[in-house]
């Protein structure tokens, strides 16, 4: 009898140890982004990861897959749905795959400076959060890409000159489709991972992106001119699967969200600063900036209104569009 009791106690303690060990195991958040290794995006993600591990006692950490190794943003969205990944750093294209109404933030000629972007992130926060949650994601924070410009190999004076350019458009992106259509441009749709090769072969000779993004992707080595008037402001964010997030212990949820807000706010500020500096770097390396005449700027604003209206009912409601435009109009008048 004593032998049986000792055996039972041994099994009990063994099972208890195994259970305690499983509780102490690190939970990995498999995170993917197009941002290349070594860039500010990844450096700040690594700092976030370090603090996350410190504050959770090693119970929670990111496993980071940079540089598009997990595919483009549509691939990442699909892999999150399948449970192969849990989280991603997305530009507007990826965000739109999840919650189309958020693409309103990326529409042409809507946002012209960071203050307007911050206002829309904060003033309509409940709408954006709900849009993501309804589709099974939790917003950990905005990570803005920045103001988007057109870059070409051949000289262009205005955005209307893009008609003569073999212009790239991100394949399947309704925002790019709308802005180029209103400008009278017929772009060549490609996955972002095919752009550099297409620039090298001459399939395209025009691209668009933030100044920092153009350098990071080395597209500046194949373009010489930048139209110095932003087409749009590209939003970005870090999302995590709601199913995965909800399964985390409550204390880890709180730590993940609080540290996320801290580091993604820092990332947006760093992105804005580096984008501003990147334009100077581009110029020093031979990039020529062309400034459209003031007479054309009014036309750009009208084109923006047309493009945004054409997307109402497809990506977002007319009601939301009206609220955002009126809200920005009130902000400008203050």
What characteristics describe this protein?
334 residues; alpha/beta; 5-stranded mixed sheet; 4-stranded mixed sheet; 52% helix
Characterization of the model:
With 334 residues, the protein is an alpha/beta fold. Helix content is 52%, strand content 18%. It has 13 helices and eleven strands. It has helices spanning 2-24, 40-55, 73-82, 92-98, 114-123, 125-134, 174-183, 195-201, 211-216, 242-247, 250-284, 294-311, 318-333, and strands spanning 27-33, 60-65, 87-91, 137-142, 146-152, 168-170, 188-190, 206-209, 225-234, 236-241, 288-290. The longest helix has 35 residues, at 250-284. It is globular and about 60 Å long.
Short recap of the structure:
By secondary structure, the protein is α/β, with parallel strands linked by helices.
Write the layout of secondary structure elements.
Elements: H1 2-24, E1 27-33, H2 40-55, E2 60-65, H3 73-82, E3 87-91, H4 92-98, H5 114-123, H6 125-134, E4 137-142, E5 146-152, E6 168-170, H7 174-183, E7 188-190, H8 195-201, E8 206-209, H9 211-216, E9 225-234, E10 236-241, H10 242-247, H11 250-284, E11 288-290, H12 294-311, H13 318-333
Tally of helical segments: 13
Count of beta strands: 11
Strand arrangement within the widest β-sheet reads 2-1-3-10-4
**What's the quaternary structure here?**
single chain
Structural class: alpha/beta
Detail the poorly predicted runs.
Answer: 7-23
Distance between the termini: 86 Å
Beta fraction: 15-25%
